[in-house]
Amino acid sequence: MVTPIPPDPTAEPAPMPPAPLSQQGLSRRRFTRAGAVASGVLLTLHGQPGMAAEVCTTASGSLSGGLQSFRGAKPVCSGRSPGYWKNSSWPGGCDKSMPFSRVFACDARNYKSYGSVSLSAILVPKSFDKFGIGRHLVACWLNVKGGLSTFQTERQLQAIWNEYQASGFYTPTAGVRWDGGRIAEYLQSTFD
Amino acid sequence: MTQLASLSPAQLRAALAGPGLTLRTGRFATRLHTGIASVADSLHLLYADYPLLDDTAFADFHLQLTRPLTPRRWIKPQVTLLYDGRSLFRPLPLDQAFPMFEWGLNWCISSRANRYLIVHAAVVEKNGRAAILPAPPGSGKSTLCAALVGRGGWRLLSDELTLLRLDDGMLVPLPRPISLKNGSIDVIRAYVPDATLSRPVTDTTKGTVAHMKAPRASVARAADTALPGWVVFPRYEAGAPLTAQPQARADTFMELAANCFNYSLLAAEGFDALAAVVDAAPGWRLTYGVLDEALAFFDSLAGA
Strand, helix or coil at B128? Predict the structure, then answer.
């Protein structure tokens, strides 16, 4: 149930009464007051195509039965986690000892942390790897290389890293900003 | 109004192979041509109670199921679905011709009927109010839907496509055969012994698929809309006791939106329509291991 918000006695009187809300406006207000937190999330419902939540769990994806469009193959959504890649062999051409910074360029601030470890070393949780972003990015990168996530690309993952490294955020689509926690949540959502 | 049952299997085959037939399912009329016998026979089994329209009637969708004339037709015969005479999908093994018709019609509605907000969810009604069951594949949604309408006395509106009318928020029925997969085929055979099921088709991308005939009473009431009453997110878990948790409306909204085909397309209209559903229909998260218990829970909702 929505509880009405009592008037604030300290507030200045409004110079003009607001125009009455339409029926639609009322329903919108009723709902958004009930779920103010969720309404901020509404924007993320249709992020850029290529997000796992969009590609792998769309209603149309689960409905289409056995129909396969001529327009490209169905996406593969069977990404593996960092824990899996820590203990398993890597896709051809991926070198466990390659520096992390060779795939995800590191600036001066990360020179001694991310810049000093290999791709396989970062799969083991590190104190500097806040939210496990490095760990999850490497797992996603291996998923792309191994054909386990066909909706992501190496460049897309690098774009996430570059923007996060520079600003602490990633902008999946205009007007939406993901902090480190939300980025990690997205990356993890691509693991099967 | 002629019903499909008025044709013998041989007449139905001949009509489909010749001029074609226009079949009415709820709000939609589909013109179908096919010379494939298995499609005609499955239609005869599962669509007997549906109205046939005359050849001049308007059809929303024009579908053809044909056999591509490639050399492989001798070794591995295939079937192609044509929409408005065009091939949009890869051919499938001939054995999957009838499921391909069902999938194709779902695709037509979910990608074309944008005057409705369309949710990927089963929807069933009792005492005038409807329960909407959105769920990811594999959560037991269709099994539960088949049990509710086959044994629980609920009316089938749809097992896959919930159509919400934008101007008044009513749910528009689309009663069609219920698609059952793999283990749920035998579960429903045992649980609803008098159900009519099509021959299971193996090796589809979804595994083994069979369709259960929609109850005659549900088909007869295809014009009666229903009010949204509840949104229930079901999850089947073998051996689990029944748990039903009320869900916050914001969460219900988000999950419904994520299960919509055209939420983004309808923009503000879609938001308002979903907000109205969430305002009217409390959300529940249901885990069940026994169908009897799940049906009892639904009856407690409906006050039956």
Answer: coil
A71 pLDDT band, cuts 50/70/90, is low
A46 touches chain B (CB under 8 A): yes
Q: Which residues of A touch B161 (CB under 8 A)?
A: 63
Q: Does A35 touch chain B (CB under 8 A)?
A: yes
Among A32-46, B57-71, B225-239, B290-304, whose mean pLDDT is lowest? A32-46
Which residues 49-78 of chain B have a CB within 8 Å of chain A?
Answer: none
Q: Enumerate the domain spans of chain B.
A: 4-113, 116-303
pLDDT of residue A37: 44
> CA torsion, points B188, B192, B196, B201, in degrees to nearest 10?
10
Question: Is this structure's pTM higher than 0.90?
Answer: no
pLDDT tens per residue, range B253-289: 999 998 899 988 898 999 999 999 999 999 999 999 9
Q: Packing angle between helix A133-145 and helix A154-167, nearest 10 degrees?
A: 170
Domain ranges of chain A: 79-190
Backbone angles phi, psi at B53, to 5 degrees: -100, 160
